[in-house]
Amino acid sequence: xxxxxxVFLEDPLGVYAVLAFAELVIxxxxxxxxxxxLAFALLAPLLLAAGVFALDAAVQTDxxxxxxxxKEIAHDIESGDFTRAAEYLADDFYGDYVSxxxxxxxxxxxxxxxxxxxxxxxxxxxxxxxSVARVLARTTVWYDHxxxxxxxxxxAWTVHWGKRHGQWKVINxxxxxxxxxx
Length: 182
Prior knowledge:
alpha+beta
């Protein structure tokens, strides 16, 4: 079921390729025989592709929700809006940053101390299983440090997510690792 969801709702490019190939085969057969039946058959791959496109557009999977949330969090932190980013932290947040309030404060202090200007999520591997997920994310952070000057740093993060009242919330963030290898 997971593989069908991924193929049809998250990355339907393969389905489109198969349908395009089917369209070419039917078009070749129609060209040789030019029957009414084959002319109508030419519509089938096009209609199926339209159906897959409509389904993909109508349904947002958990993986797609998490990808959007990651971008929002990076944007909020970049703009200095830690209260909005904190809305994605679960009330039962735990781990390396101890609590929700401590995690928010650590983010504020890092932004101020290092002069963080821009944060980009450059890669993310998502593992989603029912109501839990793990994201291995690589970010690039551009900064203007008062002592070390301007530069950038690549960081790798492991973020654990859980569904709380039907919404994805961060339940644990492990401390960032320098280098950013996933």
